[in-house]
């Protein structure tokens, strides 16, 4: 009788485990961590010796191992399975689970995974990773260690786990795609500067490298470094609004031209407004030409009124402007530029930032020897 | 004895229900739909007469009703509760569940919700909506209809449901924020054109309106309209790369200047490349100056080689260019512009698109009468 207390107790335990696992599944939006977790838990859910998970490449209609645990992982990553081929391919094609309790008697079974991993498959429970609209892959449990075979009860539990895993995978993939599109759109803004002015584009890349190196040297947290990175990429985007006659003038600017040039941090901040960036990023963009003594522009802020990100960006930006050749003048040598940073440390620049940057540059020089 | 078959059977049913609900919870990344679903299901999980859900406003440390069902919803939306205040505020402050089986005897109970909704609260089960790192809100079940009071069993089930709901809410919020940041970054690209050239910025907005109206008139699917919208916003971003002397020349362009001008669709496509937009959007951007007869630029594609999105964008773009005043010439009147579209229908323009657009313009004119 299936409703005996023992059976029910076992079922309560299993369902409670599934609920616990789900909580972790849906807390993980990082696709690699998520797949890792699913792989590790799959064994536990149906007491299997091993498990595998293949994702579906929709455009190629092929299954592939995004992740494979253990030292045979690399070999497995080479293998791709056509939808319809073998046991996994059959399940992906039909969208239904399959138990094969004697693989030697099933023509769909192929030994090539066993060969690649030096493993002996006896029985397989294979379920589709299915969301409302798509099949995102298949999951296999291999060699049941409890009964020596897989039954309907295992299939039920594995299907419940797989259905939650599939949705979590789809969410994580959506999240990853959206994140990449966002980063891409930010890169497009840099690309837009490049279309107008190659010098600014190259400058922006270098300032980003310097600013990140300073932040790392100062031991800043990962989120702060990410803010510095975004601020660096976008700090000069306002130069799109500066007339070419001013931006590329092969000589010293007149007072009036300099006033126009000085609008660029404000225009940069204006352009990035719709993105809704953190105040730290916007502050760094708007204030990368301020000075510690309040004599900078556009707002004449001083000292602690300036966010650390702005003070870092300012040093990185000034240094690159000094050492770079322009059509109308040769760049200063590194030594002279460093001397300039030192000279203006405490008035124009934040001394702690200057010091960190000089350490970075010294290390880099030593590596070049 | 708590492990009687009846109890266990009941527990299996409850856990199975929770697993089912979770699947729906995590499938819903739209925050409004998600909160609606949670509210509707909360009653069912603990057999309550009513339920409520308040989200936490982190910056204000206040709880608020993002969603309130029924005809009293509007009044509830006005109410905000300080963390620490009342039963909900207590639970948010302590991060722990609370059962109040006789609200008349609990000083934390406030009747103002009952007053607003003409409801009589007898007993309350209130649980925090808690993820690994944050409290995102609280959820209340009101008036148990099974036993007439809430017990530990109800609390356990409601907590399990709440813990999954909280993660789903946090994911949906993250997703919403990221989506808004992405849209913002696309808007920033339009804002960047605006910084260089106000005419192009206004033009881009109008072309977007025309193109969307054509798409709607043609009965295109929501996703296609969204592609048309994005393509419209970005089609002229490449003008950032056109020298101002050419872009704003107050007169006819020389052959050489026209060659430079004709690079802008290619530059637009180049700039948006990092975003990884759909091929339909990129095609429409690159090919909005092609002609149906293959005599356009940059690639001389013809007929069906051009995606529908490109053919729509082309008509919208040409029409706006015709009717708009420029410093060196007055815009054509609407009637003449429509006659031009008709004249070039089948050679330059897709006849189906021209026809749809004329319908749109005629409707708009009638509305102005």
Characterization of the model:
The structure is a homodimer of 369-residue chains. Chain A has a six-stranded antiparallel β-sheet, sandwiched between helices. The first copy, chain A, is elongated, with a radius of gyration of 29 Å. By secondary structure, chain A is α+β, with helices and mostly antiparallel strands. Chain A contains 15 helices and six strands. In chain A, helix 2 (31-46) runs antiparallel to helix 6 and helix 6 (152-196) packs across helix 7. The model of chain A has no long low-confidence stretch (mean pLDDT 91).
Salient structural properties:
homodimer; alpha+beta; 15 helices; 6-stranded antiparallel β-sheet; 6 strands
Euclidean distance between termini CA atoms of chain A: 80 Å
| Largest binding interface between chains | A-B, 58 and 59 residues
Question: Percent range for helical residues of chain A?
Answer: 55-70%
The tally of beta strands of chain A, per DSSP, is 6
Give me the secondary-structure category of chain A. Answer: alpha+beta
Mean pLDDT of chain A: 91
- Strands of the biggest beta sheet of chain A: in what spatial order? 3-2-1-6-5-4
Q: What order do the SSEs of chain A take from the amino end to the carboxyl end, as H and E?
A: HHEEHEHEHEEHHHHHHHHHH
Form type of chain A: elongated
Stretches with pLDDT under 50, minimum 5 residues of chain A: none
User: How would a textbook summarize the main sheet of chain A?
Assistant: 6 strands, antiparallel
Using only C-alpha atoms, the radius of gyration of chain A works out to 29 Å
Per DSSP, what share of the residues of chain A sits in E-state strands of 2 or more residues?
A: 5-15%
Oligomer: homodimer
With helices defined by DSSP (H or I, 4 residues minimum), what is the helix count of chain A?
15
């Amino acid at each position: 009788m299936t409703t005996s207390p023992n059976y029910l107790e076992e079922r309560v335990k299993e369902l409670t485990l599934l609920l616990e696992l789900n909580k972790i599944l849906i807390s993980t939006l990082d696709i690699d961590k998520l797949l890792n977790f699913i792989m590790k838990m799959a064994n536990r859910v149906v007491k299997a010796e091993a498990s595998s998970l293949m994702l579906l490449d929709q455009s190629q209609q092929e299954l592939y191992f995004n992740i494979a645990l253990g030292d045979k992982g690399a070999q497995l990553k080479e293998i791709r399975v056509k939808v319809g081929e073998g046991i996994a391919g059959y399940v992906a094609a039909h969208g239904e689970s399959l138990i094969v309790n004697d693989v030697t008697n099933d023509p769909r079974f192929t030994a090539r995974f066993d060969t690649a991993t030096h493993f002996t498959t006896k029985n397989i429970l294979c379920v589709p990773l299915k969301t409302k609209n798509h099949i995102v892959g298949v999951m296999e449990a291999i060699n049941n260690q409890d009964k020596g075979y897989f039954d309907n009860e295992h299939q039920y539990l594995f299907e419940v786990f797989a259905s939650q895993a599939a949705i979590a995978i789809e969410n994580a993939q959506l999240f990853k795609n959206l994140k990449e599109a966002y980063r891409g759109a930010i890169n497009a803004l840099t690309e837009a500067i490049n279309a107008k002015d190659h010098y600014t584009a190259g400058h922006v890349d270098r300032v980003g490298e310097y600013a990140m190196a300073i932040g790392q040297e100062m031991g800043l947290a990962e989120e702060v470094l990410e803010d510095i990175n975004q601020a660096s990429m976008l700090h000069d985007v306002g130069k799109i609004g500066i007339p070419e006659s001013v931006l590329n003038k092969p000589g010293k600017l007149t007072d009036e031209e300099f006033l126009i040039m000085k609008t660029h941090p404000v225009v940069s901040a204006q352009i990035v407004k719709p993105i809704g960036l953190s105040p730290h990023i916007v502050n760094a963009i708007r204030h990368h030409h301020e000075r510690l003594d309040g004599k900078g522009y556009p707002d004449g802020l001083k000292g602690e009124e300036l966010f650390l990100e702005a003070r870092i960006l300012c040093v990185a930006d000034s240094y690159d402007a000094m050492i770079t050749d322009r059509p109308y003048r040769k760049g200063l040598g590194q030594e002279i530029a460093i001397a300039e940073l030192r000279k203006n440390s405490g008035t124009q620049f934040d001394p702690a930032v200057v010091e960190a940057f000089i350490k970075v540059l010294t290390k880099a020089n030593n590596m070049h020897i």
